């Protein structure tokens, strides 16, 4: 959306938003590099938390507060906690370990760069020429706010908009992902309890 | 445009944001901070007194009238203690961890409506210095989710404290604590979903507004989610009877064994602050928040009065739990969380959804209830069967050894 705002001449260039994006993006990239370069597993997980929190902050900049809080709940609150839990149950020396960087790390880096290129190309190719729609869900306001502003109340919020699209337009992908996750869960149990 | 809708449904931020508005928000922030700190100190004193009364002791009675200044004295003492840093500790994480425990407690309290006039359709909006506003620091559209997110971030404070201390007992204590907190978060979340379903909104002010005219979620959701939430919250707070985290005879002091001075005080403060915050959340979600009859005097005052009365009731309940219930064993704790609370909360949620869908579709409510309860009973029977099979398999496996 930040990219879109610059393309669309009707929407003024939001300086604060773009500066915020830049600062958070720098933090995220630094954090991501530290995730793979640090030689302490717990520190790596904490840098990952920084990256994920940065992603949540970017979502807030895009006024997608529901996605942001889901990011915090699921990734920071559950997944990284489980990473840390697993690390602590097995081994997590305070001083870190020397041999954490594998010899073929540049292969992984190559894959990362390729993925970056692919995602950038896809995003630019799909949305590069788009303009913000006139009736954007971003400007939806709760009833109390529009009442105070004296404007027409627009029902619902971003949360409502997200759930509306998940449970109508994207219902089948959503259910497919749910089944996939359940399958993964059962698979984990079967693997763990194999006797 | 988007900023106002994102930050709050608060009419204060809707119009032009001038200096007065900024000052009001700053004032609210200061009040919330000060209130939470004072409430925490009083809670420590209150709990010690109640616990002392229940166990036939006197409790703190030297500092100030009824010993009410005891927490202040303890706080001053702890500030002058040496701040130890273990030799084998991870210095940065060791210093960071206490803040990860304290900050979420503060942030959670920001979304609690501590007063307001909910008796009309205005949804708790009152006049403050000529500006219409809500009596809460922030009212994001994702209110309740913020509470859950903060309670999952608080796990980091416990977990990292144990790891970064670089010694055995804190690590064991933190592994226990984080497993416990992660397990009970699920039950906490599932019982909150029932409230959201009944209220039809995620904002805390909306949830409180939906409970006016005595339509409290306590009975609107049918008691069960309240009980599940209360138990899960007690476990999430690591309070007795779920205080295995600091079972002294097994773990020395738990995850904060190596902490001393101000950093230890922060954990101590966070524990009681979380108790106050969690009680406030329970009041908001289930007990109607500041809703209550207006007797004499200004309407806005009674909201605050009722909120505090309900908060005190819950804080007393938590102190009561501590004084009366013996500590759980670890396997009992896990059994209760995974085999009782989570299935119960999930089943109750499904039943409430069935009733809601039934009334939307105009189905026969009695039939919906009967089918729903029958489905739940079948599910419960399957669960019991699964539990029995697992136990038999375990016993068979044990027999081979």
**For the report, how would you describe the main beta sheet of chain B?**
2 strands, antiparallel
Mean pLDDT of chain B: 84
Q: State the largest interface.
A: A-B, 40 and 46 residues
Radius of gyration of chain B equals 23 Å
Question: Which parts of chain B are unreliable, with pLDDT below 50 for 5 consecutive residues or more?
Answer: 1-8
Q: What's the end-to-end separation of chain A, in Å? A: 51 Å
| Main sheet overview of chain A | none
Characteristics:
heterodimer; A: 195 residues; mainly alpha; Four Helix Bundle (Hemerythrin (Met), subunit A); 2 domains; 71% helix; B: 401 residues; two-stranded antiparallel sheet
What would you note in describing this structure?
The complex is a heterodimer of chains A (195) and B (401). Chain A is mostly helical and 195 residues long. Chain A has two domains: 1-94, NADH-ubiquinone/plastoquinone oxidoreductase chain 6, subunit NuoJ (Four Helix Bundle (Hemerythrin (Met), subunit A)); 140-195, no CATH class. Helix content of chain A is 71%, strand content 0%. In chain A, α2 runs antiparallel to α3 and α3 runs antiparallel to α4. Chain B has one domain (3-328). In chain B, α9 runs antiparallel to α13 (330-361). In chain B, strands 1-2 form a two-stranded antiparallel ribbon. Chain B has helices spanning 2-7, 19-54, 70-79, 91-109, 143-164, 168-199, 204-209, 217-220, 224-236, 248-251, 261-286, 299-324, 330-361, 365-400; strands at residues 125-128, 131-134. Chain B is 68% helix and 2% strand. Classes of the chains: A mainly alpha (195), B mainly alpha (401). The A-B interface holds A 40, 42-43, 46, 49, 60, 63, 65-66, 69-70, 72-73, 76-78, 81-82, 84-85, 88-89, 92, 94, 138-149, 157-159, 195 and B 1-2, 4-6, 8-11, 13-15, 88-90, 93, 123, 125, 132, 140-142, 145-146, 148-149, 152-153, 155-156, 159-160, 162-164, 166, 171, 174-175, 178-179, 182, 185, 202-203, 397.
